Amino acid sequence: MVVHLGMTGGFRLEKTPHTRAEFLLEDGVLHFHDPRRFGRIWVVERGAYGEIPLLARLGPEPLSPEFRPEAFLLGLRRSRKPLKALLLDQTLAAGVGNIYADEALFRAGLSPFRLGREVSEEEALRLFQALREVLAEAVALGGSTLSDRTYQQPDGLPGGFQKRHAVYGRTGLPCPRCGAPIAKGVVAGRGTHYCPRCQR
Ligand SMILES: [Zn+2]
């Protein structure tokens, strides 16, 4: 069985108003809780994960040695998509969601609206590095728990990376680097936070 938590999904020991599936175990019931219903559950033969279309097209895990700057750079600079859309697309790097795409672009000093084919080699490498740094720091701090508290650590405690967000969820607040107000736009249908002065 393969489960994709899909942004708001998670397992709970108690039934919730958003329980979408129940797993009867020897000593209790495990509830799949998923308010926004983006989660998915598949049952496949062990090891046959390539049969799952969503997994088959996933790019490398950004914190693994398989995430190579050469391939990232090539994929990025071949694309006509905006950088933010490319990061969310999952084919260049797996697992990057809205928060970490915004934070990585800020750290790299690149506008989310820039097209992949418009970035220089040096800029693409900056984004590669920023993505790895942001994700490593977020993992070390237990992830980002927003005010809706849908994401929690396995022990139920909130993560700590939300306190480090430079742009995500900070519309109108001062940029930590230059003080200009953080702006919010839309790329690929997703709310996108950025500093109009630092990100070019
Ligand atoms: Zn700034």
From TrEMBL:
<dbReference type="InterPro" id="IPR010979">
    <property type="entry name" value="Ribosomal_uS13-like_H2TH"/>
</dbReference>
<dbReference type="Pfam" id="PF06827">
    <property type="entry name" value="zf-FPG_IleRS"/>
</dbReference>
<keyword id="KW-0479">Metal-binding</keyword>
<dbReference type="InterPro" id="IPR015886">
    <property type="entry name" value="H2TH_FPG"/>
</dbReference>
<feature type="domain" description="FPG-type">
    <location>
        <begin position="166"/>
        <end position="200"/>
    </location>
</feature>
<feature type="domain" description="Formamidopyrimidine-DNA glycosylase catalytic">
    <location>
        <begin position="1"/>
        <end position="39"/>
    </location>
</feature>
<keyword id="KW-0326">Glycosidase</keyword>
<dbReference type="GO" id="GO:0008270">
    <property type="term" value="F:zinc ion binding"/>
</dbReference>
<keyword id="KW-0227">DNA damage</keyword>
<dbReference type="InterPro" id="IPR010663">
    <property type="entry name" value="Znf_FPG/IleRS"/>
</dbReference>
<comment type="subunit">
    <text>Monomer.</text>
</comment>
<dbReference type="GO" id="GO:0006284">
    <property type="term" value="P:base-excision repair"/>
</dbReference>
<dbReference type="Pfam" id="PF01149">
    <property type="entry name" value="Fapy_DNA_glyco"/>
</dbReference>
<dbReference type="InterPro" id="IPR015887">
    <property type="entry name" value="DNA_glyclase_Znf_dom_DNA_BS"/>
</dbReference>
<dbReference type="InterPro" id="IPR035937">
    <property type="entry name" value="FPG_N"/>
</dbReference>
<keyword id="KW-0863">Zinc-finger</keyword>
<dbReference type="GO" id="GO:0034039">
    <property type="term" value="F:8-oxo-7,8-dihydroguanine DNA N-glycosylase activity"/>
</dbReference>
<keyword id="KW-0456">Lyase</keyword>
<keyword id="KW-0862">Zinc</keyword>
<dbReference type="InterPro" id="IPR000214">
    <property type="entry name" value="Znf_DNA_glyclase/AP_lyase"/>
</dbReference>
<keyword id="KW-0238">DNA-binding</keyword>
<keyword id="KW-0234">DNA repair</keyword>
<protein>
    <submittedName>
        <fullName>MutM</fullName>
    </submittedName>
</protein>
<keyword id="KW-0511">Multifunctional enzyme</keyword>
<dbReference type="Pfam" id="PF06831">
    <property type="entry name" value="H2TH"/>
</dbReference>
<dbReference type="InterPro" id="IPR020629">
    <property type="entry name" value="FPG_Glyclase"/>
</dbReference>
<comment type="similarity">
    <text>Belongs to the FPG family.</text>
</comment>
<dbReference type="GO" id="GO:0003684">
    <property type="term" value="F:damaged DNA binding"/>
</dbReference>
<keyword id="KW-0378">Hydrolase</keyword>
<dbReference type="GO" id="GO:0140078">
    <property type="term" value="F:class I DNA-(apurinic or apyrimidinic site) endonuclease activity"/>
</dbReference>
<dbReference type="InterPro" id="IPR012319">
    <property type="entry name" value="FPG_cat"/>
</dbReference>
